[in-house]
């Protein structure tokens, strides 16, 4: 069998010379251009949607934060030894956080008040047109002159430690002490999860658009304007 000498580049068939260029899908140039255009338009619409949704979520979060900041509250607790009831009487007074200890109380400061003992399971007073709140909670707290009432009943304490509650029935006792619990805020509704999803969508679409542009550049590099494969 005759020996085949080394082949020169010019002796390779043409399809072998540039077969590695043909690994890209082959389609009509007009069809490819139309498909690319539709894909780009869809990506642009999705990008705009996620961008607008992100802006909306940020605005909602800002508004919610502003609204919740106006309802910060301060919680005060009361305990006193019962004279006509068993054990202790306890109460929780919730005021707007802008109340300053040592200043006069008013109905505008009140959010709610709740008292309970073995005789009065629940005395609830809320900020409504019939509610009245007077007195002073002293700096450092302790015994205080304070009176609160509405259509549901009344509660009164004095600086000598005496106190009374009327629902009816009535409670009264001694050694009444006020103390502070904490300053709290109503939890804010949050749109952070929505913002995170939107930002992830924007990043994904941006990368997809980048990949599409790179694909266009590769196609233009491998094809002539008449759709024929280039040789290198």
Overall description:
The chain has 232 residues and is of the alpha+beta class. The chain has 3 helices and 9 strands, in the order H-H-E-E-E-E-E-E-E-E-E-H. The protein has a 9-stranded antiparallel sheet, with no helix packed on it. The two termini are 34 Å apart. The relative contact order is 0.17.
Concise summary:
With 232 residues, this protein is an alpha+beta fold. A nine-stranded antiparallel β-sheet has the order 4-3-2-1-9-8-7-6-5, with no helix packed on it. The chain has helices spanning 14-17, 29-69, 192-222, and strands at residues 73-82, 88-96, 110-116, 123-126, 132-136, 145-150, 153-157, 163-166, 170-184.
Task: Pick out its properties.
single chain; 232 residues; alpha+beta; Lipocalin; 2 domains; 9 strands
Write the layout of secondary structure elements.
Elements: H1 14-17, H2 29-69, E1 73-82, E2 88-96, E3 110-116, E4 123-126, E5 132-136, E6 145-150, E7 153-157, E8 163-166, E9 170-184, H3 192-222
Antiparallel strand pairs: 1-2, 1-9, 2-3, 3-4, 5-6, 6-7, 7-8, 8-9
Helix pairs in contact: 2-3
């Amino acid at each position: 069998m005759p020996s085949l000498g080394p082949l020169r580049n010019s002796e390779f068939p043409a399809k072998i010379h540039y077969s590695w260029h043909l690994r890209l899908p082959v389609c009509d140039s007009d069809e490819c251009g139309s498909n690319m255009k539709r894909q780009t338009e869809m990506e642009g619409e999705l990008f705009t949607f996620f961008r607008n949704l992100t802006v909306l979520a940020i605005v909602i979060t800002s508004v919610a934060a502003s609204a919740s900041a106006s309802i910060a509250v301060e919680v005060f607790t009361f305990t006193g030894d019962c004279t006509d009831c068993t054990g202790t009487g306890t109460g929780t007074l919730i005021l707007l956080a802008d109340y300053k200890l040592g200043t006069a109380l008013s109905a505008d400061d009140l959010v709610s008040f709740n008292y309970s003992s073995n005789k009065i399971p629940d005395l609830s007073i809320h900020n409504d047109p019939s509610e009245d709140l007077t007195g002073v909670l002293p700096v450092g707290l302790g015994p205080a002159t304070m009176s609160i009432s509405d259509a549901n009943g009344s509660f009164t304490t004095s600086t000598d430690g005496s106190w009374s509650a009327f629902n009816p029935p009535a409670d009264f006792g001694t050694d009444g002490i006020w103390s502070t619990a904490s300053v709290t805020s109503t939890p804010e509704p949050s749109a952070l999860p929505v913002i995170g999803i939107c930002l992830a969508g924007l990043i994904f679409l941006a990368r997809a658009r980048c990949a599409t542009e790179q694909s266009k550049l590769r196609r233009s590099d491998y094809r002539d304007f008449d759709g024929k494969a280039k040789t290198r």
